[in-house]
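Give me the fold.
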Amino acid sequence: MAERTLRGARLGGQSFEDERGIEFAARQQVGYRCPQNHVFEITMSVEADVPAVWECPRCGAEGLSTSGIEKEVKNEKPVRTHWDMLLERRSEKELEDILKERLELLRGGEIGPAHLHRASAKKRKASA
């Protein structure tokens, strides 16, 4: 068992292979500048799509490309509220009718929490 172990090797240590015969991918340096005026460069593949923004390694702000690459403008959907979605399904007149109907049922004791109707049921029995 001791024959198969490598002495002095550790996880994340240096490689025992040499770099002869290895052809590295073509690279480019892409520059960015953040609002704090930090200028930094990122190494990327020549084939990579260069993004217009990159996070600044010093302050974390969004750095813009110094080579003039424009940020894409995305079409954002307007925020739909619950009321907007409700109005897609029913008219305001229908909603008013449903509200009146439900209030009548609630006041009559047919729907709603039981503890609200116990007192009214006792009053009805006492008056009868």
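The beta strands are 27-33, 39-45, 53-55, 62-65.
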